[in-house]
Amino acid sequence: MVKAFNPDISLGADVYYNVPGVAVVKWDPTLKAAHIEWQGWADTTEYAAANDAIIGALSDRHGSRALGDCRLLKVIKQSDQDWSVRDWFPRVLAAGLRRMALVIPTSGLAGMNVKDILSQVPGTKLEIAHFSTIEEARAWLAQPLTIPPVGQ
User: Fold this and answer.
1) DSSP string of the chain?
2) What is the pLDDT along the chain (152 residues), one digit of tens a residue?
3) 42, 81 in Cβ contact below 8 A?
4) 112-151 as b/e, with b when 16 or more CB fall inside 10 Å?
5) Which CATH number is 45's domain given?
6) What's this model's pTM, rounded to 2 decimal places?
7) Which of 27, 91, 101, 104 is the most exposed place for a label (fewest CB within 10 A)?
8) Phi/psi at 99 (nearest 5 deg)?
9) Considering only CA atoms, which of 3, 74, 85, 2 is closest in space to residue 38?
10) Rounded to whole angstroms, how far apart are CA atoms 12 and 83?
11) Range of the domain at 23
12) What pLDDT score was predicted for residue 148?
C-alpha cells in the first residue's frame, strides 16, 4: 500500500516528486489533475516513486485526472511494465483516476512500452487518450468526465 504523501515544504505544496533528469510530479490546480513530466530514464525505484507520487497527488486532492508528459520518457523495463499493470493501476484506479491524457514519447520503443501497459487496463474504468502536444492533452483533459468519479 502506498503511504500518505505529504509534499516536502521545500518542494512546494503542489510538488509531489522531483528528481532532475527523471521526473517531476505536480498538482495542476487549473486542470485539477496530477501532472507527471518525464525527463528521461528512470530506474525501478525512481519509476515506482514517480508513479506512486501520482497516487499521492490524486489522494490528497481527491482528483480523478492525470496528465502524463511522456515526450522524454525512455524505455521502461519489462519488470516495471509488469509492476504498472499488476500493482500500480489497481491502486491508482482505487485512488480515483478516471481520465488520463498522455503526450506521446519521442522514443518509439518507449511509446510501444506505454501502449502495451495501457492495453491491459480495463477501458470501462479509465478514459485514456494520446496526444502529440501538451496543449492538446490539456484541452482534452479539461473536458467533462464520461466515467463517474469514485463514490458517485
Assistant:
1) -PPPP---GGG-TTEEEEETTTEEEEEETTTTEEEEEE-S---HHHHHHHHHHHHHHHHHHT--EEEEE-TT--PPPHHHHHHIIIIIHHHHHHTT--EEEEEPPSSHHHHHHHHHHHTTS-TTT-EEEEESSHHHHHHHHTSPPSSPPTT-
2) 333 344 443 456 799 999 999 999 999 999 999 999 999 999 999 999 999 999 999 999 999 999 999 999 999 999 999 999 999 999 999 999 999 999 999 999 999 999 999 998 877 789 999 999 999 999 999 998 887 665 54
3) no
4) ebbeebbeebeeeebbbebbeeeeebbeebeeeeeeeeee
5) 3.30.750.24
6) 0.88
7) 91
8) -140, 130
9) 74
10) 29
11) 14-141
12) 64
Q: Does some domain include residue 57?
A: yes
User: Does residue 148 belong to any structural domain of this protein?
Assistant: no
- The answer to whether 34 touches 66, Cβ cutoff 8 Å, is yes
Q: What are phi and psi of 78, to 5 degrees?
A: -55, -40
Q: In total, how many domains does the chain have?
A: 1
What are the phi and psi torsion angles at 14 (to 5°)? -100, 0
Nearest CA among 111, 141, 109, 113 for reference residue 126: 141
In the chain, the amino acid numbered 64 is: S
